Amino acid sequence: MDTLGPEQRRRRWLILAVVAAAYVLSFFQRFAPAGIAQDLAAAFQTSAASLGVLAATYFYVYTIMQVPTGILADTLGPRRILALGGIVGGLGSFLFGFAPSLDVALVGRTLIGLGVSVTFIAMLKLIAVWFEERRFATIVGICMLVGNLGSVLAGAPLSALAQATGWRGVFLGVGGLSMTLGVLCWLLVRDRPASLVAGGIEAPRVDRTVVLNGLRTVLKNRATWPAALLNTGMCGAFFTFAGLWATPYLMQVHGLSRNVAASHLSLWFGGFAVGCFFVGTLSDRLGRRKPVLLVTSHLLVLIFLVFLSCIKMPLAVSYALFALTGLTTAGMSLSWACAKEVNPPLLSGMSTSVTNMGSFLAAALLQPTVGWVMDLSWQGEMLGGTRFYDVASWRAGLLVVTLCAALGALCSWWIHETRCRNIWQAS
């Protein structure tokens, strides 16, 4: 942005650093139940289905807030919604940490989801306003790479810290961090550079009729749906399994210790973080979207079939498989580009939001569904104060996740090849 002076250039990096930290925290909160699933089951004496509902409340709220957050970012401004989101998320984390019962924990988890749901869209808005357009994609990619560090922290580091200090203490600390970041957003973040304010350039206002018409355009466009359903399948399977069930699966089916199981999860998240950065680059260099999506989506199904088999494997092989799973899952990040490139350029935010909703909705529905299916075949065995599920129960639950991944692979065949450019044409 050529109109920015040296002080404003420095300020935009400070703003980005604070918002990126909030983004890291949102990723951590998304996947935290996976690292402490056994603790939660023991603390609340809950069934797999109830544990799934507890983890899924985050995704229910996140799904509902996708489109409204874009409107709030344009009306209230990123600064206000980030500050408010940090406070709400912090209060939710405190409530979750102190929760004496499952019902109270559900309220806390809902508030967490509500608080962090605004972070990504607000971050995109700030990048668009404070940085040059030619640098937008690069900076967003870097922020996504950094944000995924939160999911890595939700694996082995969270598990180790929870064992050392107790899971409740972890969430109380995270609540304090969330509120601190909310205050910092209020103090340091500005919706627009001072040069734009001084120049009399008004902040854009949202015409709600335009918003509704834009949403209708995206939803009526048949080319939107293959990308949206691919995202639903691939990312939904990722959020469902990695977001809750992977650690107890490795412990109960493969007999791994909690720390080793959690380290597998960190490898998955780390592979996903690196993969998100490189998959887009590979696609851009090839000048193709569809071949990359075909390969990654089908490979993900094959990996879930391995999980479904519950076959025993050497530790080195299982580590490598989880790292590969992360790299493969990252293919779903191209679904946003595919949706954006088949819709009007002015509706890029709307098209990516619609595409994104499927994955969160799938996780919201499937996390408790997997638990419910496993509970149906539970034999009444307990271990360490929590329910122990045999291989047959895990296979029943994993079949649900595998079918979700298969939906993504199937829809990859209907993806419109855009050759990495916008191909939308008004009818």
Your description of this structure?
This protein is an all-alpha fold and 427 residues long. It folds into two domains: 1-206, Growth Hormone, Chain: A (Up-down Bundle), CATH 1.20.1250; 207-427, MFS general substrate transporter like domains (Growth Hormone, Chain: A, Up-down Bundle), CATH 1.20.1250. Helices cover 78% and strands 1% of the residues. It contains 19 helices and two strands. Strands 1-2 form a two-stranded antiparallel ribbon. Strand 1 and strand 2 form a beta hairpin. The longest helix is centred in the first third of the chain and has 30 residues, at 6-35. It is globular. The two termini are 35 Å apart. The mean pLDDT is 89. Residues 15-420 form the Major facilitator superfamily (MFS) profile domain. It is a multi-pass membrane protein. This is Lysosomal dipeptide transporter MFSD1. It catalyses: L-lysyl-L-lysine(out) = L-lysyl-L-lysine(in); L-alpha-aminoacyl-L-arginine(out) = L-alpha-aminoacyl-L-arginine(in); L-histidyl-glycine(out) = L-histidyl-glycine(in); L-lysyl-L-alanine(out) = L-lysyl-L-alanine(in).
